[in-house]
Amino acid sequence: MENEKTIQEKQERNIKYLEEIIKKYNLLKTFEKPLEKIKENPDTNKINDLLRIICSILDEKINTLNEELKTAQEKNKAIQEEFNIDEYEKLKKEKEELETQFKTQIEEYESKLKEYENKYSDLIDRYQKVSNAYIELKNEYESYINRMQKNQDKLKRESKERIISNLIPVIDSFNISLNSLQNTQNINDVLKGVELIYSQLIDVLKNEGLEIIKTEPGQNFDPSIHEAIEIEETDSPEKESIIIQEYRPAYKLMDKILRPASVKVYKLKNKIEGDKDG
Predict the structure, then answer these.
(1) Residues 6+ apart with CB under 8 A from 79
(2) What residue numbers bound the domain in which 247 lies?
(3) Is the pTM of this model over 0.85?
(4) For residues 242 and 237, what is the distance between their CA atoms, to the nearest angstrom?
């Protein structure tokens, strides 16, 4: 890759060339202001664009001069047939002068175009390659995004279908239990039905990655998975931050705690008083 110094040197050479050619030809005077703006904040793409535009204008001018020369030749031929020899000789001389003038201008334009092609052919080739590579990369990126979006939509749909399909037996069990409640007075049968439904529901959630974190009395309080909703004062430092009772378990999905466990915890009495004073 070209370093910043090399790029800057090329920009300076190109700007100097643009100044020379714009100054030399009146038909390019309209590009003086755009060139001044480019000089204030040199940009390789803008410089190359201006070079291509000027090259196109010069090429068009050469074509126009060729057409004018052809028209003049046809006019001289017609005049030669219509007027006398003196008039013809006069027009012939004018034609020759015009041809010389056109030839000189054409040679000059062709020389400048050739110089431009020699100087910037490599640059134009590299620009074209970069442009094509960018278009190809852009198309590949957009195609990748579309595929990813379709895959995400598919995964979401399949995930919902899997979860709902696994919950359908739980719903069936609920219906069976609700119907059996109307025909039984045995509380033990009702409890067994509820326990079965609960077990089914837990199994479905565990299969989806849910983890139930139980907290036993005597464990140390961990703020990452516990939430103290009740505090009991103690004078014993050994009991500080020891969990007394769990009210609700913690639920974890993969690496994320969905809900911390609600617990009752010991706290030193003097710490509680210090917190109040603060």
Answers:
(1) 87, 88, 91
(2) 211-277
(3) no
(4) 10
Q: Residue 242 carries which DSSP code?
A: B
Residue % of the chain over a pLDDT of 90: 17
Query: Is 57 buried (19+), middle (13-18) or exposed (0-12) by CB count in 10 A?
Result: middle
Q: Which of 148, 172, 195 is the C-terminal boundary of a domain?
A: 148
Residues 29-68 have pLDDT tens digits of 888 888 888 888 888 888 888 888 888 888 888 888 788 8
Q: What are phi and psi of 146, to 5 degrees?
A: -65, -40
Residue among 27, 75, 26, 17 nearest 47 (CA): 17
Q: Measured at the alpha carbon of residue 197, what is the angle toward residues 192 and 203, in degrees to the nearest 5?
A: 125
Residue 173 located in a structural domain: no
- Asked if 223 and 188 touch (Cβ cutoff 8 Å), the reply is no
**140 shares a domain with 8:** yes
